[in-house]
Specification:
single chain; Rossmann fold; six-stranded mixed beta sheet; five-stranded parallel beta sheet; 44% helix; 15% strand; globular; binds pyridoxal-5'-phosphate; binds the ligand N[C@@H](CCOP(=O)(O)O)C(=O)O; Thr_synthase-like; Thr_synth_N; threonine synthase activity; TrpB-like_PALP; pyridoxal phosphate
């Protein structure tokens, strides 16, 4: 299995190289050269298997010879051992033909744990056999950072620097990132928004001298391994609802487009997905793009679903690559245009995007009203990101089962949840003392050179 860049100018890599490289040297994102498929019989065969067994079958074709089957099975087993639910990703029913896929039973209470716990194990296995060390720099709007810190804290061959927007994550999210005492963890509160953090990260990758000096690695969803791990729960949930013998639809609360892109990969692999619905909050650049055909930056307004307060949605580039017939030069051109604030998508590419993705948005009031209504109707307390998905999903219900992805535990966003439905969701036992732990973080200006100097100083 070989990996190529969406901008067509970077070296072709193996799975291990793509995983450890993160962003391609031409600024693009790595994708598999070809997408492997599973037959209907193979998909049907996932029924009754454990999450770990299904994960092995779904991901194995993508990893080439990076790990033996025995090694990969052990990596998967370790990755999901700490999850608090035997099913790992259980489904609950919200109403006729509407299901909720609970992805928040991992250690940091968000769907990021599915990929990050796996990547932690993959990195450890690859680095310990090569004897190398890496510096992970991650950009987060709240959840990626805490999941990355949880997966990499205390490891001797990794330093992890997390850039988060100062004052724009929930108190729980911030404390998850700032309270781990391990010396290899560096939480940096950037005076800017998530897009500033992500732009700084990409600039660091573009600076080859810096990249080589610190041995930069990425664990954001620009890293293909992140997306791959998330493909698995589309299969497990769809199979438990009758796939491949019947179609299933998904609605995904979307920011950086990694999670829904994983659904797209599942569909390309042969999973009979009918609709893949992009659900955005008031920062609705993706929904507007689907409606107008123009990707136009308008600035970000903080919302009660802060992890989705994003306007440069990294993984959308991977989808564009496919609908532009995998022409790297066309994607490089669009990304150059985006520097001036907008690019327009060709009619042919838009038609293909609309064939695959539907979209919708939820305002702040609609998000709160959905939390309140669902709690009253079903007893299920939703986090605000999940509520965005549920609200948009309700506009797309049909006779095909709809799965809304529940991407975080409500206790990560207690203020918004309590304001909406009057219930203060409690943190689980393993985090019950979170607000008594000491915090440790550095506030930094939104200044690339300053950030790079700080990282080099800390490493020295
Ligand atoms: C709780 C939550 N929901 C949804 C999203 C959006 O996911 P993606 O960025 O993969 O589109 C995020 C951030 O990634 C998140 O943290
Ligand atoms: N919502 C994310 C933003 C970063 O997304 P990623 O999937 O690229 O890591 C977050 O919680 O940090």
């Amino acid at each position: 299995m070989r990996y190529i860049s969406t901008r067509g100018q970077a070296p072709v890599l193996s799975f291990e190289q793509a995983m450890l490289t993160g962003l391609a040297s031409d600024g693009g994102l790595y994708v598999p050269e070809t997408i492997p498929t599973l037959s209907a019989d193979e998909i049907a065969g996932l029924a009754g298997k454990s999450y770990e067994e299904a994960a092995f079958i779904v991901m194995r074709p993508f990893i080439g010879d990076t790990f033996t089957d025995a090694e990969f099975k052990e990596i998967i087993a370790k990755a999901y051992a700490g999850f608090k639910h035997d099913a790992r990703a259980p489904l609950v029913q919200l109403g006729p033909n509407h299901f909720l896929l609970e992805l928040f039973h991992g250690p940091t209470l968000a769907f990021k744990d599915f990929a990050m716990q796996l990547i932690g194990q993959l990195f450890q296995a690859a680095l310990s056999r090569s004897g190398k060390r890496v510096t992970i720099v991650g950009a987060t709007s709240g959840d990626t950072g805490s999941a990355a810190i949880e997966a990499f804290k205390g490891l001797s061959n990794v330093d992890v620097f997390i850039l988060f927007p100062h004052g724009r994550v929930s108190d729980v999210q911030r404390r998850q990132m700032t309270t781990p005492p391990e010396a290899n963890v560096h939480a940096l509160a950037v005076e800017g928004d998530f897009d500033d953090c992500q732009a700084a990260l990409k600039e660091m990758f573009a600076d080859i001298a810096f990249r080589d000096h610190v041995k930069l690695a990425a664990v954001n969803s620009i890293n293909w391994a992140r997306v791959l791990a998330q493909v698995v729960y589309y299969f497990t949930s769809a199979v438990s609802l009758g796939a491949p013998h019947r179609e299933v639809s998904f609605t995904v609360p979307t920011g950086n487009f990694g999670d829904i892109f994983a659904g797209y990969i599942a569909k390309r692999m042969g999973l009979p997905i009918k609709d893949l619905v992009i659900a955005t909050n008031q920062n609705d650049i993706l929904h507007r793009t689907m409606v107008t055909g123009a990707y136009t930056k308008e600035g970000v307004t903080p919302s009660i679903s802060p992890s989705m307060d994003i306007q440069v949605s990294s993984n959308f580039e991977r989808a564009l690559f496919d609908v532009y017939d995998r022409e790297g030069a066309a994607i490089a051109q669009l990304m150059t245009e985006l520097k001036s604030g907008e690019f327009k998508i060709s009619q042919g590419a838009m038609d293909r995007l609309r064939d695959t993705f539907a979209s919708g948005r939820a305002s702040e009031d609609e998000t709160s009203a959905t939390i309140s209504a669902m709690q009253a109707r079903t007893g299920e307390v939703l986090c605000p990101h999940t509520a965005v998905a549920v609200k948009v999903a309700e506009e797309h219900l049909s006779d095909v089962p709809m799965v809304s992805l529940a991407t975080a535990h409500p206790a990560k966003f207690p203020a918004a949840v309590e304001a909406a439905c009057g219930i203060h969701p409690a943190l689980p036992v393993h985090m019950a003392d979170l607000f008594e732990r000491d915090e440790r973080f550095t506030v930094v200006a939104n200044d690339l050179d300053g950030l790079k100097s700080l990282i080099k100083e800390r490493l020295a």
